[in-house]
């Protein structure tokens, strides 16, 4: 069975080797047909402490690494707040 892969934004990097990533998705409410935004906050293992707040990252499902950490970083951070060279 393939592991889940999500893309999200780092919202906290205060812990050592761990970042908190917000993964958002849009879906249509089954009764009211309104588009609803749902956000999951996931703890992600970041071995080299390379991600900072505001970075877009890709994460993959993994075995339990701690009480709440079940995800690992697979794609290095893409700096969204940097890169404006003008």
From TrEMBL:
Gene3D superfamilies: Nucleic acid-binding proteins (2.40.50.140). InterPro entries: NA-bd_OB-fold (IPR012340), Ribosomal_uS17 (IPR000266), Ribosomal_uS17_bact/chlr (IPR019984), Ribosomal_uS17_CS (IPR019979). GO terms for cellular component: ribosome. Keywords: Ribonucleoprotein, Ribosomal protein, RNA-binding, rRNA-binding. Pfam families: Ribosomal_S17 (PF00366). Belongs to the universal ribosomal protein uS17 family. Part of the 30S ribosomal subunit. One of the primary rRNA binding proteins, it binds specifically to the 5'-end of 16S ribosomal RNA. This is Small ribosomal subunit protein uS17. It comes from Candidatus Magnetobacterium casense.
């Amino acid at each position: 069975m393939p592991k889940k892969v999500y893309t999200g934004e780092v919202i906290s990097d205060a812990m050592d080797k761990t970042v908190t990533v917000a993964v958002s998705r849009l879906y249509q409410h089954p009764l009211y047909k309104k588009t609803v935004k749902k956000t999951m906050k996931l703890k992600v293992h970041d071995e080299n402490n390379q991600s900072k707040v505001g970075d877009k990252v890709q994460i993959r499902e993994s075995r339990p690494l701690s009480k709440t950490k079940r995800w690992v970083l697979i794609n290095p951070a893409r700096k969204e707040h940097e890169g404006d060279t003008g």
